[in-house]
Write a structure and sequence with these properties.
The complex is a heterodimer of chains A (219) and B (50). Chain A is mainly alpha-helical. Chain A is built from seven helices and no strands. By secondary structure, chain B is an all-alpha fold. Chain B is elongated, with a radius of gyration of 17 Å. Chain B has one domain. The chains are: A mainly alpha (219), B mainly alpha (50). Chains A and B meet through helix 2, helix 3, helix 4, helix 5 and helix 6 of A and helix 1 of B.
Chain lengths: 219, 50
């Protein structure tokens, strides 16, 4: 929670709040979601339906906010090509397509439609975000993007989504690590605000990376 | 028009790729879900009812 407050504070102090508005929005919503979850947890047990609803519905909203944050970074990367309109079009199609696909899967398999839909939509959006971030990283390399903050934020997202997919694969392939992975999840939750806060604190908007450092040197 | 069709194809490609990746990762799933937003403890999801 402290990392989130730190990121938003640094963004405001360094006049980057509006420039990275959707990233800030995700972190602020994440803080509110944690407050709501803790408030519910104070009165109800961990496995109570109230906490289950509060947890999974807020998580679904946060994942949608994270998806919008990824799209906002994509819009910034593609800004010079004047295709921001098409980036938004792809984003809307992806969100609607994922929601439609999730509904089609969930409606056939369960009666508890609301919660299952929220959980499945959230998980599907994680994987869409993973593919989107890798494509974005490819675009960063191809377009020789040099803005340090932007590059580091895209890399953070790539690491976050990759760690999520890796944890998922590990827990499914080796169920004996389930408890270890459950401890890893809150660490993953902290990773994005911490890395973004470091990026905002250590680099100014004018900082540039040399493109040669972004790609492997051919031998 | 062709740009819109390209955008549509890209969106479909991303969606298909993401769902294939999910299928690959969760091929041996036993119903466990992971959520990585926030630091609150994750509750166990009730099993689906038919």
């Amino acid at each position: 929670m402290g990392a989130g407050v730190c990121f938003v504070t640094c963004s405001v102090i360094r006049a980057s709040f509006l420039r990275y508005f959707f990233l800030n929005l995700y972190v602020i919503l994440s803080l509110f979601a944690d407050l709501i979850r803790q408030a519910v947890l104070r009165f109800y047990a961990l496995d109570s339906p109230q906490y289950v609803y509060a947890y999974y519905y807020t998580d679904c909203l946060l994942t949608i906010a994270l998806f919008v944050a990824v799209i906002s970074l994509a819009s910034r990367v593609f800004a010079e090509l004047n295709i921001a309109r098409y980036v938004r079009f792809v984003a809307v199609l992806l969100l609607l397509g994922t929601a439609g696909f999730t509904y089609a899967v969930v409606v056939q398999s369960t009666e508890r439609l609301g919660t299952r839909f929220a959980v499945e939509l959230s998980q599907n959006l994680y994987f869409v975000g993973l593919v989107l971030t890798y494509l974005l990283w490819g675009a960063v390399l191809k377009l020789q993007e040099t803005r340090t903050r932007l590059v580091q934020m895209v890399l953070s997202l790539g690491l976050y989504f990759s760690a999520y997919a890796g944890s998922y694969a590990l827990i499914n392939l080796a169920p004996k690590y389930e408890v270890d992975v459950q401890y890893l999840v809150p660490v993953l939750g902290c990773f994005l605000p911490v890395s973004w806060a470091l990026s905002i604190m250590r680099h100014s908007e004018d900082s540039r990376l040399t493109p040669a450092r972004l790609v492997a040197v051919p031998r | 028009m062709s740009r819109k069709l390209s955008a549509l194809a890209l969106a479909l490609g991303i969606l298909v790729g993401a769902m294939e990746l999910k299928t690959l990762v969760t091929a041996h799933s036993h119903g466990v879900v992971i959520m990585a937003n926030g630091v609150s403890p994750m509750p166990k999801l009730p099993p689906p009812t038919k």
